[in-house]
Specification:
Elements lengths: L20 H18 L14 E6 L2 E5 L6 E6 L3 E6 L5 E14 L4 E13 L6 E7 L13 E7 L10 E8 L6 E7 L3 E3 L10 E12 L2
Antiparallel strand pairs: 1-2, 3-5, 4-7, 5-6, 6-12, 7-10, 8-9, 8-12, 9-10, 10-11
């Protein structure tokens, strides 16, 4: 990196009097540059998402934590639930629910990583219908259906069924919503998990993690 300075590298040298104008000019330039460094205002690049934080001081010097001037990262918990597109006479009983999120703000988009474990039971329903969802995402997904993220879904106790032709579980956040659609993935198609794959009067234990985008 090039360094630009008014200091003449030829001063001081042996045999040059400290009373010479060249020596005095060089010393004055060095003194001025030191003063400039001591009072320098630094331009921080990136998104300023919070005020810089003083983390130490002494001898008239201030130490600032500049990490807050880059990407912003926050975290927290959320409360997942379970529902069908049409609830009908279904009653979902949540027996255990744990979930966390990490939200990272970048210059032109925001990503949210989530992880959860949900244990629930169903009654002997007959009129419930449609797709199955995990509910309660901490932030609403963006509206672009093809760019909202995917999740790994694990059936911990083997009670969920896969739609015909599918060989593994997955999940996807709903566009412009706060629900996660449970999916079965096959070689030729991806199909939503529906009431046909969530049998009534059983206990379920599902885990999920992944990343989705939210609006800036």
């Amino acid at each position: 990196m090039a360094v630009y300075s008014n200091i003449n590298p030829n001063f001081p040298v042996e045999g040059i009097s400290q009373n010479s104008s060249g020596f005095r000019d060089n010393f004055a330039a060095a003194k001025q540059e030191i003063e400039n460094i001591q009072s320098k205002t630094i331009q921080l690049t990136g998104i300023i998402v919070s005020d810089p934080v003083e983390i130490g001081s002494g001898n008239d010097n201030l130490i600032i934590n500049t990490m807050v001037a880059g990407e912003s990262v926050t975290s927290g918990t959320w409360a997942p639930g379970f529902q069908f597109a049409t609830s009908g006479d279904s009653v979902i009983t949540i027996t255990s629910s744990t979930a966390i999120y990490v939200k990272t703000i970048y210059s032109d988009f925001i990503l949210v990583w989530v992880a959860m474990n949900l244990k629930f039971s169903t009654n002997a329903y007959t009129t419930a219908a449609g797709a199955a969802y995990i509910t309660g995402l901490p932030f609403t997904s963006i509206s672009a259906a093809n760019n909202i993220g995917m999740f790994n879904l694990i059936d911990n106790n083997g009670r969920l069924r896969l739609p015909a032709g599918c060989t593994q579980f997955a999940a996807q956040s709903e566009a412009a919503g706060s629900r996660i659609t449970l999916l079965g993935i096959g070689s030729d198609e991806n199909l939503p998990i529906t009431v046909s794959e969530v049998l009534p009067s059983l206990n379920y234990d599902v885990s999920l993690q992944g990343t989705y985008r939210i609006a800036v």
